[in-house]
Amino acid sequence: MTNERRNIPLYVLPSGARGQPTDTDLARALIAGEPWAVPATWNRFAPSVYGIAHRAFGRTTDAEDITQEVFYRLFARAHTLKEPSALRSFVVSFAIRIVKWELRRRRVRRFVLLADSGELPDATAPAVDTESRQVLQRFYGVLDRLGARDRLVFSLRYLECMTLEEVAAAMEVSLSTVKRSIAHSGQRISAWIAGDPDLAAFFESRRAGP
Amino acid sequence: MTRGAEQAPDGVAAWVRAASAPMTAAQQQAGLQAVTFRLEQDRRRRVQPGRRLLVALACAGAVAGAVALGLPRLARGPGPSDAQPLTFVVEGGAIGDGGYVLSETPSGARVRFSEGTEVHLLPGARGRLGRVDATGARFAIEQGAAEVSVTPRPGARWLVDAGPFLITVRGTVFTAAWDAGGERLDIDMKKGRVSVTGPVAEGEVSVRAGQHLAVNVPRKEVVLREGEARVPASDGVTSSGDDGGGASGWAARGTSPPPAHAPVERDRGGSSAEPGVRGRLGDRGRSWTAWLAAGELDRVLADAERRGVGTVLAQAPEAELAALADAARYRRRGELARRALLAERARFPRSSRARDAAFLLGRIEEDRSGGGPRALEWYDRYLEEAPTGAFASEALGRKMTATDRTRGVEPTRAVAREYLRRFPEGSYANAARAFVERP
């Protein structure tokens, strides 16, 4: 059997420098309408966009929907991308714009309907226990009380660990606006958590350690 | 902004970050299919108004011509240039939202088109039907294998998406498999020719009848081999200097049953080892590997039991042991799968399958109550034996989560750091970052 297999011709096709296309290659391929560019762009950036959306909304289904929406719009408008080398920031700014738009839409709906779905978000975190899941759900309930801009600033600063300057650039607002928003949202969230005995006790116990 | 004012939410935010789950491979695949489906729908909507006008003009011209010349031209059968889209039926399944093909039978779902083309999703595979028009259709394999048989017609246009790859087809017969977790593409050509484009290949790769294409995206490896895929993984591995995780080595160990590229023909004329148990099972000359590829899992298990599991484990060739282990895993018969994998390792200790078996044994142990520590041992062993193997990223990621469950924060953090160092963009990278940052 081994001898027979040795006779099988084998060709290894070098993948060359384009084995992993750069962001610029990807952007150019998207603009040119190359069929492979759509899945390649998705595979490269979708996990990041999903992470941003998941941390902003705290719900898996929302994160999936937002991610799809971001890329659907992105691919439909790929030809408008002016700087191919800035594909990553193009994707992130696109994602943030859609997250902001969705947060605003939901806040308006909550004013009208009291809640987007009538319930607190079903925050999902498969790796944590039931208590943690409940805490996460209540935490996103707290975040829901913030305005869309404050919430997104908080999310980008604390959950995405962006610098203040990065947040300002991503939100297309001034640095001082970001600082005001951070101060405002931070104080309010701290106060709301302190006013919720369960949440406060949970985070206090985390701070104290096991 | 003082740091003190930011201090309060910091601990909360770190905890929320740690609790946030990364996007899974399945979510990634499903999302991509949903997006491409919407884009395709848009494209169709944009094209249709113009097409309707052209079709109307063409029909009017054809009728006028037929009447004028008295020729029965309209009696001919439909061709790709006709505007009438193909129709299709789904056997053994149904079409769900977004074109998702839902299999309802153990043998998988078949999509049969009106001009004779057929796409058979093999058991365990998931797929999605996109564009369908007069020239053909676009079908996406989300996970697993599909047998595609396209009826040749002039002007036909059939496209098959498999992960980031696009397979352009004319008239041909082939099996394509995509492993979303391992990012591996496998194409077995039976008739005709297809061209494959994707991020790893330099331009188009043309695959003709009798050839087998294997692409491993993480390793940026493209292997085109003569003689279909009737060669077990270890062949290509040896020839190309692969360590066992090469593109050609994945198929029998995918997360779904592999494509039909069993070592049937070559085994028949191959070594003389154990002729009585070597998979020539007296049924049209088909092997367990071929049964597995056809989704006949129970048949493999029943035959192993009929012959005696102990005898099979002691005497069957490596490919058959692997088929038995896979069939048992798919049927959730963990103990039988474990015994088959242990037999693989004991009897063929230097093969690539034996190395893969270490990873699979870890998976099985993880599913067993209290199996965490043993799972860790197997993952460690796999990472030691195949540090750059096809499952290395997943083994280390699973080791990280298993460590979290069994050994606590600090050991998990160490594994997470190692993961980020080796696979900074791996599917467990977000989880690893969360573990590193966890207070």
In short:
The complex is a heterodimer of chains A (210) and B (439). Chain A has 210 residues and is mainly α.
Overview of the molecule:
Helices cover 70% and strands 1% of the residues of chain A. Chain A has 210 residues and is mainly alpha-helical. In chain A, helix 2 (23-32) crosses helix 3, helix 3 (37-57) runs antiparallel to helix 4 (60-76) and helix 5 (87-113) crosses helix 7. Chain A folds into two domains: 22-119, Orthogonal Bundle (Rna Polymerase Sigma Factor, Chain: A), CATH 1.10.1740.10; 124-210, Orthogonal Bundle (Arc Repressor Mutant, subunit A), CATH 1.10.10. Chain A is elongated. Chain B has 439 residues and is of the alpha+beta class. Chain B folds into two domains: 86-230, Sandwich (Jelly Rolls), CATH 2.60.120; 264-437, Serine Threonine Protein Phosphatase 5, Tetratricopeptide repeat. Helix content of chain B is 44%, strand content 20%. Chain B has 14 helices and 15 strands. Chain B has a 15-stranded mixed sheet that branches. In chain B, strand 14 (211-216) and strand 15 form a beta hairpin. In chain B, helix 10 packs antiparallel against helix 11. Chain B starts with a helix and ends with a helix. Residues 1-8, 65-82 and 229-285 of chain B have low confidence and may be disordered.
